[in-house]
Specification:
Length: about 375
C-alpha cells in the first residue's frame, strides 16, 4: 500500500489542550487551529504532523491526537530568538522536518518564526497561511518594540513562499502590497464547533459585546466613546476578554452601561455571545477577526470597521453595518438601529446566517485545505 503524502504544519498549535504534559496557557490562542485539528480527524488522505515550539518543553514531546502526530519542541527565549534570526529555533524545526520527511510544509502566521522555518524548507512544496498582517498593524497603531522589530521578518516570508492563503479579501490585499507575484488564495478559517451548537437567547434588554484584547490596533477607545454617549446609555456594552494590561486603555471612569468582564474561557465567551443583541468591532487592521465569524455563525448582527477582514460576512443594513474605524457618530447610529427592538436584532442576526455557517464550518475548511494540498502536490508546484 502506498504511503500517504505527509503534511507538516508549523504553527503555534495549542498542544497543551491535548496532553497533560504541558501547562495550560491562559492567554489568547489560535482557535481556528483547534477547529482545523479536530476537523482533520475525519480525513484519511494525508498524514498530518503538527510541529510547534514551546518554552515549557524541556525535551521533544511527541504524541498523537485525533489521528494526527503532534511534535512539541523546546525553544529559545523569544527575545534572544528575535535578534538572532531565530536560528536556534529554525534549526530545531529543520531537524524535526528531516525526521518527518514531509511532502508539503504548511506554515501559519508571521507572528512567530514558523514562516521563517517554512522559508528554510527545500525538499518539498511550501504553503503559508496569513494569520495577522504585522506590517500593516505596526503602521497603524502603537506596538511594543518587540512586535515592531519582529514585523520586519514578514515581507521576506511573503516574498519567498510563493503559495499563500489568506482568510479575507482584506488580507489578500495586504499580501499583494508586499508580494504582488504571490499565488494568494482565499481560505476561510473555521469557527469552533461549539458555536454551531448554540441556541440564541437574547438578553431581556439590549446588550452589545466587544470581544478581543485591548491592543491599540483594536481601537477600543472608539467603541468606549460611542457607548459613553447619552444616546446609548440604555445599551449595555460587555468588554469580553479585555485585560487591564499590557495596554491599559480602559479608563477608570466608565459609564455604568460599560462592563469589563476580563478574560473568559471559550464556553463563557460562547454563552455571552448567544445572549448578545449585537457585536461591535472597530479595528484599525484585522485579517479576521474570529469574533465576527463566531457572531455570524451564532446569528448575531455585527457593527464593524471597513478595515476588518470579516466584512465579507456582513451585509450592510441587513446583518449589520460597516463603518470607518473612527466614526463614533456612525457607530452610535448603527447600534441604535441594530438594538431598536428584539425583533430587529433577531432578524438582522438571521440574515445570511446559513451561508455563514456553511462557509465557516470545519467541514468546509478541511475540504478547501485538502483541495489546496492536492493541487500543490499534484501539479509539482515550485516551493
Amino acid at each position: 500500500m502506498a504511503e500517504k503524502p505527509k503534511i507538516a504544519i508549523l504553527s503555534n498549535f495549542p498542544a497543551w489542550l491535548y496532553t497533560d504534559k504541558l501547562p495550560v496557557f491562559r492567554g489568547h490562542y489560535g482557535v481556528w487551529l483547534v477547529a482545523l485539528h479536530e476537523a482533520f480527524a475525519h480525513q484519511d488522505e494525508f498524514e498530518i504532523h503538527w510541529v510547534v515550539l514551546n518554552k515549557n518543553a524541556a525535551a521533544p514531546l511527541r504524541f498523537t491526537s485525533h489521528g494526527q502526530h503532534i511534535h512539541v519542541l523546546p525553544r529559545m527565549k523569544r527575545n534572544l530568538g528575535l535578534y538572532s534570526l531565530y536560528l536556534w529555533d529554525r534549526r530545531a524545526v529543520a531537524k524535526e522536518l528531516a525526521l518527518i520527511k514531509p511532502d508539503l510544509v504548511h506554515s501559519w502566521g508571521t507572528e512567530d518564526c514558523y514562516g521563517l522555518c517554512a522559508k528554510d524548507f527545500r525538499r518539498g512544496v511550501k504553503l503559508h497561511s496569513v494569520q495577522g498582517a504585522l506590517r500593516t498593524s505596526v503602521q497603524r497603531a502603537s506596538y511594543p518594540r518587540f512586535v515592531r522589530h519582529h514585523s520586519l521578518y514578514e515581507p521576506g516570508v511573503w516574498k519567498s513562499i510563493r503559495h499563500i492563503t489568506a482568510e479575507s479579501p482584506w488580507a489578500i490585499s495586504r499580501v499583494r502590497e508586499v508580494a504582488p507575484h504571490a499565488d494568494v488564495k482565499l481560505f476561510e478559517y473555521a469557527v469552533e464547533e461549539r458555536f454551531f451548537q448554540l441556541e440564541r437567547k437574547l438578553a431581556p434588554s439590549p446588550v452589545c459585546i466587544f470581544s478581543g484584547d485591548n491592543a491599540p490596533i483594536k481601537n477600543l477607545n472608539t467603541v468606549i466613546k460611542a457607548f459613553s454617549r447619552p444616546e446609548l446609555s440604555h445599551v449595555t456594552l460587555k468588554l469580553v476578554g479585555v485585560p487591564s494590561s499590557p495596554y491599559p486603555v480602559i479608563p477608570p471612569d466608565l459609564t455604568p452601561n460599560i462592563i469589563p468582564m476580563g478574560r473568559v474561557n471559550r464556553q463563557e465567551m460562547a454563552e455571552t455571545l448567544a445572549s448578545a443583541w449585537a457585536l461591535v468591532h472597530m479595528s484599525l487592521a484585522d485579517t479576521g477577526p474570529t469574533a465576527v465569524k463566531e457572531a455570524r455563525v451564532v446569528g448575531v448582527p455585527v457593527v464593524l470597521s471597513n478595515e476588518c477582514g470579516s466584512c465579507q460576512h456582513v451585509v450592510e443594513g441587513q446583518s449589520g453595518y460597516i463603518l470607518n474605524p473612527y466614526d463614533v457618530d456612525g457607530l452610535v447610529r448603527a447600534v441604535l438601529a441594530v438594538t431598536k427592538d428584539a425583533q430587529t436584532a433577531q432578524a438582522m442576526g438571521e440574515y445570511g446566517r446559513e451561508e455563514c455557517r456553511r462557509t465557516l464550518s470545519g467541514e468546509t475548511m478541511v475540504a478547501s485545505l485538502l483541495a489546496i494540498y492536492r493541487e500543490l502536490l499534484s501539479s509539482g508546484a515550485p516551493a
